[in-house]
Specification:
There is one protein chain. With about 425 residues, this protein is an alpha+beta fold. It has 5 domains: about 80 residues, no CATH class; about 110 residues, Dna-directed Rna Polymerase Ii 140kd Polypeptide, Chain: B, Domain 6; about 60 residues, no CATH class; about 45 residues, Alpha-Beta Complex (DCoH-like), CATH 3.90.1800; about 80 residues, RNA polymerase alpha subunit dimerisation domain (DCoH-like, Alpha-Beta Complex), CATH 3.90.1800.10. Helices cover about 35% and strands about 20% of the residues. The strands form 7 sheets. Strands 1, 4, 5 and 6 form a 4-stranded antiparallel β-sheet that branches. A 3-stranded antiparallel β-sheet has the order 8-7-13, with no helix packed on it. A hairpin with a 2-residue loop joins strand 4 and strand 5. The radius of gyration is 41 Å and the shape is elongated. Its EC number is 2.7.7.6. This is DNA-directed RNA polymerase. One of its GO terms (molecular function) is DNA-directed RNA polymerase activity.
Length: about 425
């Protein structure tokens, strides 16, 4: 049957079954993964003796109606069924968040609401505290504009165009006035041309008005939408409600109740929770599968593998002075291997097992003599003796490296501390 909407399904639980009308076999389908989920969406597409059926189940009430219609129409075959799952998890340390401007970050600490700082103007406590060093590196200036625009818009109850240029709405309001002035100025131009001698007499008067006009120029430039920035438009909107012109506020410590010495930029920003959560990424391994070639633990969370211990982790342990821990991680708990090495020629790949002669063993048993067993079970093929064979512990991947180099006609020679010497020739 079909699963119910809102039903909680655990890993490896059956949430629907497939019935084969020819063989009569029922094949259950189980939930994959490691986390429980809820049935969020069910869609059925099938056929009956009276035609096709396409139903999308969105509520539990419609689920019963679909079942009734299925029985009434003698529904006997399902072409396609779609399901979607939803999971509800609280944010914890390590979960990832991001704004709509790519300013992503990881939750590093969860504080009680009573310990969070509060604003001196509104008494509000922030939901999220961001390190200001995140902005120079990623240069998400639009996030700062969104914060100021959302703060000003929420106070005035208006929609604000957070473009980096001047507000286009205010420009359109001033454009018709400027257009109305243009024809008047054009009409005055011919009159002024006719009054050329008078203008010469008015020159000293105009010179007297120049300093006054110079005082008005910077104010007019500030009002010009072409030279005004978004901050100059949003700042007065914040200041009209008693907030700082640049969006900063004075906060008080939630622990001590004292005023914080620095002003903090605060405002509403749309944030979204990303799919990268600790509950889906944490990885633990004690013992498990190993790779057949290197004999090292496999990787991957799904296969029960381990986390790669790379060069940077190695450098961290060396700098910390814990060399024995490095030996434990990379050798004892990884691919510990015991190999027989010939100390005479330094070869790692020429050791072979010594097989006892069955005829000699049978003769000694017939004569009642004790059977002689070799002192060492391995001998070197190159030196043809077992005198210099030594047992050495090494990572198995080192043996694999020696075999790879031997395939390229490169001999890897080991020099042991207790090296034996070949017997002198009798010549």
């Amino acid at each position: 049957g079909l699963p119910r909407l809102g039903e909680k399904v655990h890993p490896y639980d059956k949430y629907y079954s497939v019935y084969n009308s020819l063989t009569g076999a029922v094949r259950p389908v189980r939930l994959k993964g490691t986390e429980p989920a809820f049935i969020d969406y069910v869609a059925v597409n099938g056929a009956s003796s009276k035609g096709s059926l396409q139903k999308v189940i969105q509520h539990t009430n419609t689920l019963l109606k679909v079942f009734r219609t299925v029985t009434d129409m003698h529904f006997f075959f399902v072409y396609l069924s779609e399901y979607s799952f939803a999971s509800c998890e609280k944010p914890i340390i390590g979960d990832k968040f991001s704004s709509r401007h790519g300013q992503k970050g990881v939750c590093s600490q969860l504080w009680p609401d009573i310990d969070m700082p509060f604003s001196a103007n509104t008494g509000m406590r922030p939901d999220l505290i961001i390190n200001p060093h995140a902005f120079p590196s990623r240069m998400t200036i639009a996030m700062l504009l969104e914060s100021m625009a959302a703060k000003a818009g929420s106070l005035h109850g208006k929609f604000i165009n957070a473009t980096p240029f001047a507000n286009s709405v205010k420009e359109e309001d001033k454009d018709p006035k400027e257009k109305d002035k243009d024809p008047k100025e054009k009409d005055k131009d011919p009159k002024e041309e006719d009054k050329d001698p008078k203008e010469k007499d008015e020159d000293p008067k105009e010179e007297d008005k120049d300093p006054k006009e110079e005082d008005k120029d910077p104010k007019e430039e500030d009002k010009d939408p072409k030279t005004r920035s978004v901050v100059d438009e949003l700042g007065p909107m914040l200041a009209s409600y008693g907030f700082n012109y640049h969006g900063t506020e004075v906060l008080y410590s939630g622990l001590f109740g004292t005023e914080m010495q620095c002003e903090i930029f605060i405002g509403p920003v749309y944030y979204q929770r990303l799919r990268h959560m600790v509950s889906d990424k944490f990885q633990v391994r004690t013992t498990g599968r190993i790779d057949q070639i290197t004999r090292q633990p496999i990787g991957g969370r799904k296969h029960g593998g381990g986390i790669r211990f790379g060069e940077m982790e190695r450098d961290a342990l060396l700098a910390h002075g814990s060399a024995y821990l490095l030996h434990d991680r990379l050798h004892s708990c990884s691919d510990y291997h015991i190999a027989d090495v010939c100390s005479l020629c330094g070869s790692l790949l020429t050791a072979t097992v010594i097989k006892s002669d069955p005829q000699k063993k049978a003769k000694r048993e017939m004569l009642g003599l004790p059977t002689v067993r070799p002192q060492k079970n391995f001998a070197c093929q190159a030196c043809k003796t077992s005198k210099g064979m030594e047992t050495v512990a090494m990572p198995y991947v080192f043996r694999y490296l020696a075999a790879e180099l031997a395939a390229m006609n490169i001999k890897l020679e080991l020099r042991l501390s207790n090296k034996s010497e070949l017997p002198a020739s009798k010549e």
